[in-house]
Design a protein that fits this description.
4-stranded mixed beta sheet, globular, alpha/beta, Rossmann fold, 6-stranded parallel beta sheet, single chain
């Protein structure tokens, strides 16, 4: 890319897109196309075609998508498959028709089979059944990969599908009903710390900023407050009600804590995407990961320490775990010279600092 090239970042206000825009600007790329969702609805084909025909972007980063954790995937599967199929179909076709020089399509590591051999290589795609808790999202992203390959073959486009591992960082989604595991842990331990201090005002402010605290977890917070000699206000729908509260300081988390996951700080992904756009000449599927994994239990303990909550952790194994293990083999990208910069603890410190600032 040249500094004056016209670059369209789809999804620029999300976790990935905002980090990418910041990275582009740091590198001197200022000719950015950044329409808001109200200005450009990517699920509407005529609007997307009109935008591409008018603006003629040279390069495209397709980071717009509907994403979420296990609960959101289970309860909104139709929305996940519909919105993601529509977004990528419209953008990829418009990019091909308007001769975009290069496009990067962002998928997710959940595209791979549930029981794929570890670490997961790019060629393991479609070698086994998907994880049921996110299959709708995964099928949509797999279709996007196939679309990239098909457009490249038929029309000679330069569309590169990349599959990042689990991401986190500033501008993450902290809604406890739709967030991924790491931002959910940051928020849960922060709320537990506030509950232990009996700080109802701070809890209310957090709820206004990051979304409703579900009744079941609010009940957990009331038990934590009571164990510290504090009391949080009763609210309608609170499962605990006015009954005596259990003496526990444990934060209740979904699953067994045993699944293993790999995490990548979003600024590292942004640097990887710029590297791929400028240096990667092939068009094959490319994993982007850190190469380091942790169990969910280990992750929870790290987040608890960084947030500064001193109570315990209890895992509820009646809730689903998702894939038992998910570690990407990113040796192809690493072999070209790109490596992540942030350790997990460094990234979580930065993410929590951003959370406290509300960014």
């Amino acid at each position: 890319m040249q500094k004056n090239d016209k670059i369209y970042v789809a999804g620029h206000r999300g976790l990935v897109g905002s980090a990418l825009v910041a990275g582009l600007r740091r590198e001197g790329y200022d000719n950015l196309l950044l329409p808001s969702r109200t200005e450009l609805d990517l699920t509407r084909q005529p609007a997307v075609e009109t935008f591409f025909a008018r603006e003629k972007p040279d390069y495209v980063f397709l980071a717009a998508a509907k994403v979420g954790g296990i609960y959101a995937n289970l309860t909104q599967s139709a929305d996940f498959i519909y919105e993601n199929l529509m977004i990528q179909t419209n953008v990829l076709r418009a990019a091909a028709l308007n001769q975009v020089k290069k496009l990067i399509f962002l998928g997710s590591s959940c595209i791979y089979p549930r029981l794929a051999a570890q670490p997961i290589r790019e060629e393991y795609l479609l070698n086994g059944p998907l994880e049921p808790t996110n299959s709708a999202y995964a099928v949509a992203k797999i279709a996007g990969i196939e679309m990239c390959n098909s457009f490249n073959q038929q029309y000679g486009t330069n569309f590169v599908p990349v599959m990042p591992t689990n991401l986190y960082g500033p501008n993450d989604n902290y809604d406890l009903l739709s967030s991924h595991v790491l931002p959910a842990l940051i928020r849960k331990f922060h709320l537990a710390k506030l509950a232990a201090a009996g700080n109802a005002a701070a809890l209310a402010a957090d709820e206004r900023r990051y979304g409703v605290i579900p009744d079941a977890f609010y009940a957990n917070l009331r038990r934590i407050a009571a164990a510290h000699g504090r009391r949080l206000p009763f609210r309608e729908g609170d499962a605990v009600g006015n009954a005596p509260l259990a003496k526990t300081t444990a934060v209740e988390l979904w699953g067994s804590g045993q699944p293993r996951r790999e995490f990548l700080y979003v600024d590292d992904l942004a640097s990887a995407l710029l590297f791929v756009m400028n240096e990667y000449e092939a068009r094959e599927l490319l994993n982007i990961g850190s190469g380091v994994e942790h169990s969910i239990r280990e992750l929870a303990e790290i987040v608890r320490e960084i947030v500064g909550y001193t109570g315990g952790i209890v895992f509820d194994a009646t809730h689903p775990d998702g894939m038992p293990r998910k570690l990407l083999d990113s040796s192809r990208l690493h072999g070209f010279g790109w490596r992540p910069r942030f350790t997990l603890k460094e990234g979580i410190h930065a993410a929590y600092a951003s959370y406290l600032k509300g960014t």
